[in-house]
Amino acid sequence: MTTSTAKPGKYLSFLIKNQLFAVPVESIWEINKIDSISPLPLSEPYIAGAINLRGKVLAVVDLSVRLQMGKTELSKNSCVIILESKVGRIGAIVDAVCSVVDLSQNEIEPPPQYDSVDTALLFSGFAKVSEQMLMILDVASALSKLSIPTETHDAKAS
Questions:
Q1: 30 with 78: CB under 8 angstroms?
Q2: Which residue, of 9, 116, 139, 151, has the greatest Cβ tally within 10 A?
Q3: pTM assigned to the model
Q4: Which residue from 58, 63, 61, 50 is spatially nearest to 15, judged by alpha carbons?
Q5: Chain centroid to CA 36: how far?
Q6: CB contact at 8 A, 143 and 23
Q7: Hey, where are the domains in the chain?
Q8: Quick one: fold of 9-143?
Q9: Residues 124, 107, 12, 149: what is their CA dihedral angle, to the nearest 10 degrees?
Q10: Is residue 4 scored above 80 in pLDDT?
Q11: pLDDT digits 0-9 by tens, 24-82
């Protein structure tokens, strides 16, 4: 039986392909609208490109591709969530940011068992919010094994 590694607390909920996901608010650096993303040639399919964030080049992951849900179709509601991870700051494209939810321990369920260890490590728990399933991403696991260029300094304005 799997156990939940998600802890009680505040989570930012967001949509990917009309499904509700969340990350702990303490893993979020900031949230930005998408201005322009520069492609990174020869990068993995889940790397959407890079952005210039106040003089630093930041890799941006398409979470929809990472979760094997297809490429994100950018809209006026699409955002880049800047996440703090073990490898530094990383941008993550989402379809829309929803709200901050406060989850207690009894609201968090363990993720289902998966055949793939990689898939199992992506989620730290599940919760039901407003009659909708909320999938809690394990930021460290979801981003740590990716081949992502690290943050660089002193980027020229694009």
A1: no
A2: 139
A3: 0.86
A4: 63
A5: 18
A6: no
A7: 9-143
A8: OB fold (Dihydrolipoamide Acetyltransferase, E2P) (2.40.50)
A9: 0
A10: no
A11: 999 999 999 998 999 999 989 999 999 999 999 999 999 999 888 999 999 999 999 99
